[in-house]
């Protein structure tokens, strides 16, 4: 995977971007780079690898995001990820949750850029696939100007292939992880300045981006755009992404075929011991703003979560939608 061709990615989101979510998103966009949830390096090394790292071949291109602060462990986890077939390994230097801080990784690593560089160098030496970093513009009382420059300089000197920047500070004390996604003000210009200072390095932007039009405007200043909650809560935004951001031919999207693909996928998951709700919980916002969407959501939020629910529940929910009108809206 050549990083200059990554114009859109879907952010790694804890408890959200699991393998079922990624399979669903891949039906909407063939181009966007998809990320796993963050997986702790120790878990990769010592845990149930297939459960933690398994994915469907259709999910490519796909990146594994790791959490950790020990270069040796991160290098070993990166090797495991490469052997599993991931297209990229990403280091989390942006998550502000308490459980991440207690493990001395995530956003608190913004305070130790030399350690982040060491981790990046170790991972880069361990694998042949791209190694990237996702960070904030700073944490707590840090001045984002020198803080972000120090982090970027260190990881690029260590060989990082890309830096994705969430254009907000993280406050490690006083704000919850949820509040850290909304309260610290966005500073897109700070990320633009970083790109201007690093014209030959890949800089991607994340944070509060809602639409493809916004994404296109950001791409006038940076190399890539990362969508998070917008892609999850209103996944239909991904349907036109390949045409809008990559220049692919526009298409008439076949929602009926999508539902059948997801019903078949859910059936296989159920046959392996899973539940329908594991799959359909990621699809609730698919028809956002369209006639019948409310009833679609209700069925997926109630009937699909009941023990023994099968793929026909998804088909029943989709019967509330006029696919022809939905395709026109998409």
TrEMBL record:
It catalyses: 5,6-dihydrouridine(20) in tRNA + NAD(+) = uridine(20) in tRNA + NADH + H(+); 5,6-dihydrouridine(20a) in tRNA + NAD(+) = uridine(20a) in tRNA + NADH + H(+); 5,6-dihydrouridine(20) in tRNA + NADP(+) = uridine(20) in tRNA + NADPH + H(+); 5,6-dihydrouridine(20a) in tRNA + NADP(+) = uridine(20a) in tRNA + NADPH + H(+). Residues 10-306 form the DUS-like FMN-binding domain. SUPFAM superfamilies: FMN-linked oxidoreductases. It is an enzyme of class 1 (oxidoreductase). GO terms for molecular function: flavin adenine dinucleotide binding; FMN binding; tRNA binding; tRNA-dihydrouridine20 synthase activity. CDD domains: DUS_like_FMN (cd02801). InterPro entries: Aldolase_TIM (IPR013785), DUS-like_FMN-bd (IPR035587), DUS_fam (IPR001269), DusA (IPR004653), tRNA_hU_synthase_CS (IPR018517). Keywords: Flavoprotein, FMN, NADP, Nucleotide-binding, Oxidoreductase, RNA-binding, tRNA processing, tRNA-binding. The active site is at residue 95. Coiled coil: none annotated. NCBIfam families: PRK11815.1, yjbN. Catalyzes the synthesis of 5,6-dihydrouridine (D), a modified base found in the D-loop of most tRNAs, via the reduction of the C5-C6 double bond in target uridines. Specifically modifies U20 and U20a in tRNAs. PANTHER family: FMN-LINKED OXIDOREDUCTASES SUPERFAMILY PROTEIN. This is tRNA-dihydrouridine(20/20a) synthase. It comes from Mesorhizobium zhangyense.
